[in-house]
Amino acid sequence: MSSPILPFTEANSKRVASLFRQALRTAFDSSLKFDAYRKETIKIRAQFEANKTVNDPSELEKIIQATQGKLAEWKHPDPYITPCRPGGTKYQRNIPVERGPLVPGDW
């Protein structure tokens, strides 16, 4: 059984930052216009700022678990993927040609 991560540690900061980035990506996947996305990002930031000073490790774990559950609930079925990244529309579209002999065979 792992012990809970203590508040205000580097590991905890990375964990919360990762959740924040996931929340922003989830909001980006769900919004069609930048104005709507910007409003959602402000709400997300306010929710994270509200829990910024939590000192109790058990309460912190509950908040992180609730955040992970909310992210799983709101996950978009067809998320946006940057075109050149794996799974994107342009990924490996122009595969480099293999530079072998021009005429195959043994002469």
Radius of gyration: 22 Å
Portion of residues within helices: 40-55%
Terminal-residue CA separation: 67 Å
The pLDDT mean sits at 85
Q: Tell me the overall shape.
A: elongated
Structural class: mainly alpha
SSE string, helices as H and strands as E: HHH
Strand content: under 5%
Sheet having the most strands: none
**How many helix segments?**
3
Number of DSSP E strands:
0
Instruction: Report low-confidence residues grouped into runs of 5 or more.
Output: none
Brief overview:
Helix content is 52%, strand content 0%. It is mainly α and 107 residues long.
Describe the structure.
This protein has helices spanning 10-30, 34-50, 57-74. The protein has 107 residues and is mostly helical. The chain has a domain at 16-74. Helix 1 (10-30) runs antiparallel to helix 2 (34-50) and helix 1 packs parallel to helix 3 (57-74). It is elongated and about 75 Å long.
Please specify the SSE layout and strand pairing:
Elements: H1 10-30, H2 34-50, H3 57-74
Helix pairs in contact: 1-2, 1-3
Protein name: NADH dehydrogenase [ubiquinone] 1 beta subcomplex subunit 9
Subunit structure: Mammalian complex I is composed of 45 different subunits.
Membrane topology: Peripheral membrane protein
